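Quick review question:
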C-alpha cells in the first residue's frame, strides 16, 4: 500500500476540494493541505499553474505525479492507498452505478446548484449581474435535481447503497453550499435524512467547519466579504 503523503491544493470554499479532503480524512490518507484561495488569486500564480495549468482547484501532487479534477483525484487515491471497496467498488456493476452518479452530478446537479449560489450571492462581489430568466432556469434545474435525488437515487442510507461512496461526498458538499441562499429542502425528507447522516460524520464536520463559518458570517452580515 502507498504511504507517501500527497499534497492537496484546495480552497475550503470549493465543493470538490472539501470532498477530496474528507475522503483523505475518512481513509487515513496522509496529506498536506496547500491552501489555494481563489479570491486571492492563488490559483493564477506561477507556482500553482505548474501543478494545474488550468488554474482550478482541487489539484493534487503525489511525488512527481500531478492530477486535477476532484473525482479523478479520489479515484486515484482510492486505488493508491488501498481504501475500502465501498468507496469505489471493484465489482464492475457497482462501480458503474457510482460512475453514473458522478456523471449525473456534473451534467445536472452542479448545473443547477453552483450557478444558483454564484449568480445570486457571489456575483455581487465581482460586480456581475445576471438576467432573472437565467437564474430562474438554474433554479428549475436545481429543483429537478433535488427531486430526482429524493425519488430515484436515495433508495438506501447512501446514494449507491447501504455504505458511503465517493459520490456521497461530492453531492453533499454541493448541496451544503445551498445554505448560502437558505434553500428550503423541507420537501425532500429522504434527502434531509441523508444530509443529517453525512453531517454526523466526524471527518465531514472537521472539513466543513470553515465553510459553515463562512456561511454563518454571510447570513449574519450580508455585506461581509467572504
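Suggested answer, residue by residue:
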Amino acid at each position: 500500500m502507498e504511504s507517501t503523503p500527497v499534497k492537496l491544493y484546495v480552497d475550503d470554499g470549493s465543493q470538490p476540494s472539501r470532498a477530496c479532503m474528507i475522503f483523505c480524512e475518512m481513509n487515513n490518507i496522509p496529506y498536506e493541505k496547500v491552501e489555494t484561495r481563489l479570491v486571492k488569486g492563488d490559483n493564477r500564480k506561477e507556482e500553482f499553474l505548474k501543478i494545474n495549468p488550468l488554474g482550478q482547484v482541487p489539484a493534487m501532487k503525489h511525488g512527481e505525479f500531478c492530477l486535477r479534477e476532484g473525482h479523478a483525484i479520489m479515484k486515484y487515491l482510492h486505488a493508491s492507498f488501498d481504501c475500502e471497496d465501498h468507496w469505489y467498488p471493484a465489482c464492475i456493476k457497482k462501480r458503474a452505478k457510482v460512475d453514473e452518479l458522478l456523471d449525473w452530478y456534473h451534467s445536472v446537479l452542479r448545473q443547477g446548484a453552483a450557478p444558483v449560489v454564484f449568480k445570486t450571492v457571489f456575483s455581487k462581489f465581482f460586480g456581475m449581474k445576471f438576467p432573472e430568466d437565467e437564474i430562474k432556469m438554474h433554479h428549475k434545474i436545481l429543483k429537478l435535481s433535488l427531486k430526482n435525488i429524493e425519488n430515484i437515487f436515495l433508495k438506501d442510507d447512501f446514494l449507491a447503497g447501504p455504505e458511503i461512496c465517493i459520490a456521497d461526498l461530492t453531492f453533499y458538499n454541493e448541496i451544503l453550499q445551498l445554505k448560502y441562499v437558505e434553500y428550503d429542502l423541507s420537501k425532500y425528507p429522504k434527502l434531509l435524512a441523508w444530509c443529517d447522516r453525512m453531517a454526523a460524520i466526524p471527518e465531514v464536520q472537521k472539513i466543513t467547519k470553515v465553510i459553515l463559518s463562512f456561511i454563518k458570517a454571510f447570513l449574519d452580515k450580508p455585506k461581509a466579504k467572504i
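Why it works: The longest helix spans residues 92-120. The chain has two domains: 6-83, 87-220.
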